[in-house]
Write a structure and sequence with these properties.
Elements lengths: L1 H7 L3 H5 L2 H9 L2 H20 L8 H16 L7 E2 L16 H10 L23 H8 L3 E5 L2 H13 L3 E5 L5 E2 L3 E2 H8 L2 E5 L7 H7 L4 E7 L15 H10 L4 E6 L17 H7 L3 E5 L10 E5 L1 H9 L2 H4 L4 H13 L3 H7 L1 H7 L2 H14 L8 E13 L2 E16 L4 H9 L5 E2 L1 E3 L2 E5 L8 H13 L3
Parallel strand pairs: 1-13, 3-6, 3-7, 7-8, 8-9
Antiparallel strand pairs: 2-10, 4-5, 9-10, 11-12, 12-15, 14-15
Helix pairs in contact: 4-5, 6-15, 8-9, 16-17, 18-20
């Protein structure tokens, strides 16, 4: 039977001589269409051999060829709707850039830009000029520079200050960040030698002091931004560590992780260590992410003493880890919002999401429920329920923000299948699943996206009618 079906499989020439193939050739080069047809025919041949029920007409095959070409030439990186209730969602690009940052990026990609050009004399200069003064004003540091992410920044700092020397760090701070990147591995790759002190839950100042020797290159504090130890826990503050380090003429490095320029207590959240507090304490260099609580592009920011930042910038690794014009433009525009607190809260997506009232979120969810009221109750049970939003990306891990969720409990298919269909909508919608329900959080769905979410829900549910 399979051999008989295989003999009925049209040849590539037969397929290419159809009207449908000629239409595809108008959109694509003939060779591209031929290659696509060969791929599809090979797929069909394999399906037939496996005993699959496959339509073999030229028109059906051309439909698959057209789908193959659409998928091949459509971007895989596209806009998505975050209904998952994680504000800084790593899988969805972490922080949403403010409009000012988007406009700045659009401006510099139109042509040439002043990335590393001095307007005064026309000579080449450093790209740091676009953001270093703002960072110094916001943090109180003497100088600043950036790398392509905070892991790179940490490695660059360690390589510059302590290559071949011991770096003292508490055992309780040997964190693993996303993607299985561990602090001990980062330190090893930097060329520094890790010297663990204390225990998982308790490290005293005397533990650091006892570890100092002639081969000590630095003391490192790593903020535990992606987990919390609750209960019997103690560690010295950054002021104590800084005083100890400087008493022994050793540099102190503060890896702050999320990078707070604003006290999150203002939003009813647990506070994260403030960058300005570390600089005020006298650390030699602090590093943190640009795409977490700052809400800018992916980068690792380093601020601190002028001589230390100068040495970091001279390190050959800094060129390998530097960022491009898009990140520079987005970072400058994002940082400028922090100079005016009123503008920050009004125009920065992350802080707008922090400050949304539960009432306003509920009103939006109810409006969407009304728009999808035509969805049959035989297809799904739909309601608005209480829930929580996570900050995400290792920021404020122990706390959630109250919110309202649109709950869709499918009847004819599983919740995971319904959620998958939402992800395959024209504009992918990412929700979360809990107790056989698909949950959509209107704190992370942007107000202008409500109509699209409603259309996606109707489209997915209608397909099951």
């Amino acid at each position: 039977m399979n051999q008989e079906l295989l003999r009925k499989l049209p040849s590539i020439d037969e397929i290419m001589n159809t009207q449908g193939a000629r239409r595809l050739i108008e959109e694509h080069d003939r060779d591209v269409v031929v290659d696509a047809a060969r791929v599809v025919v090979d797929q069909i041949r394999s399906e037939v051999i496996r005993g699959g029920d496959t339509v073999l007409s030229p028109d059906a095959i051309l439909g698959r060829v057209a789908s193959y070409l659409r998928a091949k030439f459509s971007p895989s990186l596209k806009h998505a709707i975050n209904a998952a209730g994680i504000i800084l969602h790593t899988g969805l690009g972490r922080a949403m850039l403010p409009k000012a940052a988007v406009d700045a990026v659009n401006d510099v990609i139109k042509g040439y830009c002043t990335l590393a050009a001095d307007l005064e004399n026309g000579q080449r200069t450093t790209r740091d000029v676009h953001f270093s003064d703002i960072l110094c004003e916001l943090t109180g540091a003497e100088a600043a520079t950036i790398a392509n992410n905070n892991a790179a920044a940490t490695m660059l700092v360690l390589n510059t200050l302590a290559r071949g020397k011991e770096v003292i760090v508490s055992r309780g701070q040997l964190v693993e960040i996303g993607g299985a990147f561990r602090m001990p591995d980062v330190m090893e790759q930097s060329g520094a030698i890790m010297r663990e002190v204390g225990t998982t839950n308790k490290t005293h100042l005397r533990d650091y002091a006892a570890a100092i020797n002639e081969n000590t290159g630095a003391i490192l504090r790593v903020h535990m931004s992606n987990y919390r130890i609750v209960g019997f826990f103690e560690e010295p503050g950054i002021e104590e560590l800084t005083n100890l380090a400087h008493d022994h003429n050793i540099p102190i490095i503060d890896d702050l992780g999320s990078g707070a320029l604003v006290d999150l207590n203002e939003f009813g959240l647990e506070s994260e260590p403030m960058i300005r507090d570390s600089i005020r304490a006298g650390v030699d260099v602090a590093c943190f992410s640009g795409d977490k609580l700052i809400g800018g592009p992916q980068c690792g920011i380093m601020v601190g003493k002028a001589d230390v930042i100068k040495a970091i910038k001279k390190n050959p690794l800094s060129r390998a880890m530097r960022v491009g014009k898009l990140e520079v433009a987005a970072l400058e525009a994002t940082l400028k919002l922090f100079l005016d607190r009123e503008k920050l809260y009004a125009n920065h997506p992350t802080y707008k999401m922090f400050s949304m009232s539960v009432e306003s979120i509920e009103n939006r969810a109810i409006k969407v429920v009304k728009k999808i009221s035509g969805v049959s109750s035989d297809i799904a049970e739909i309601s608005v329920i209480d829930g929580t939003t996570q900050v995400g990306s290792g920021s404020v891990p122990a706390q959630a923000i109250p919110t309202k969720l649109l709950s869709v409990r499918p009847i004819t298919i599983s919740a995971s299948a319904f959620a998958k269909k939402l992800r395959y909508y024209d504009t992918p919608v990412f929700a979360r699943i809990h107790q056989d329900a698909v949950l959509l959080d209107f704190r992370t769905i942007q107000p202008g996206e409500d109509a699209t979410v409603a259309k996606a829900l109707v489209a997915v549910a209608s397909a099951e009618l």
